[in-house]
Amino acid sequence: MKVIKVSEENRQRLLQIAGELQAKEGRRVTLDDVITVLLNHYLKERNQALRLTEVFREYQFEADPVPVDEMDKEIYK
């Protein structure tokens, strides 16, 4: 185990999340559990965003630049 420093505000927020997880799971939840949940959530979201970027990369095409006012006219017909 290592000691990390967090602000009092973040400590309170972690404790609030721990309470919510404890109520949901019906078991004791540590701050380490909370940090694990938050990290897993962050990594999952980041990986989904990366996959989405790869999908869009497949559909890249070259087009001539269009002035913004022309785009607005087309969008807001």
Describe this structure in words.
The chain has 77 residues and is mostly helical. 70% of the residues lie in helices and 0% in strands. It has 3 helices and no strands. Helix 1 crosses helix 2. 1% of the residues are buried. The mean pLDDT is 87.
Query: Strand percentage, roughly?
Result: under 5%
Beginning-to-end CA distance, first to last residue: 61 Å
- Structural class, please? mainly alpha
Low-confidence stretches: none
Mass-distribution shape:
elongated
What pattern of helices and strands is seen along the backbone? HHH
Number of helical runs? 3
What does the main sheet amount to?
none
Entry summary:
With 77 residues, the protein is mainly alpha-helical. The protein contains 3 helices and no strands.
Outline the fold blueprint.
Elements (H helix, E strand, L loop, with lengths): L7 H18 L5 H28 L9 H8 L2
Jot down its keywords.
about 80 residues; single chain; mainly alpha; elongated
